[in-house]
Amino acid sequence: MWGIWLYCGLNVHKQCSKLVPSDCQPDLRRIKKVFSCDLTTLVKAHNTTRPMVVDMCIREIELRGLKSEGLYRVSGFSEHIEDVRLAFDRDGEKADISASAYADINIITGALKLYLRDLPIPVITFDLYSKFIQAAKIPNAESRLEAIHEALLQLPPAHYETLRYLMAHLKRVTTFERDNLMNAENLGIVFGPTLMQPPEQSALTTLNDMRQQKLVVQLMVEHEDVLF
């Protein structure tokens, strides 16, 4: 159920969950915050395809930040990023993340990364993590892309749509590489561990999978038009 039961009060056995109607709607009044809320739960409660945090942050970044050097690599002040998080949790889509409130675009990129990193189920879900890692290890370039594409199609709708929208944005970021110095590989380094987390966290797993995490995101950015 991808966490929905936490907010609508329905708790069912995994096998019985198949009998639950697909239009099961979480109660918006029971959702206390935006950050750290299950992705599918949030979009169902708000009747959207993607979290408004993702939409609003990307809109603001594309409005005034695409030429900013080190976009997504440079960190904003953590206190201000925390302010943005609190604003979204408190005000939702009415949160003010404009230049008048936060002149440093790195605060907005930091808030977006924080949102994605703090999801209880990562954008690339735990159960599909190994499929993406194994796909990245395939030597043949064409077969590697096919395997990533097949894995993408298995993502829950809200996760797929969020990832599709984010990759299209990151592809646009790379078109300003001369200014922002961020190519697909650099973005892969930043977003690999943000979007992908192993089901069982360990220092060894994290270290062993870093290259594949980076490559998965790099390929999704470079081949966004083919994979999505």
From TrEMBL:
The keyword Metal-binding applies. It holds the Pfam family RhoGAP. One of its GO terms (molecular function) is GTPase activator activity. Residues 37-228 form the Rho-GAP domain. InterPro entries: Rho-type_GAP, Rho_GTPase_activation_prot, RhoGAP_chimaerin, RhoGAP_dom. GO terms for biological process: signal transduction. PANTHER family: BETA-CHIMAERIN, CHIMERIN FAMILY MEMBER. This is Chimerin 2. It comes from Nothobranchius furzeri. The gene is CHN2.
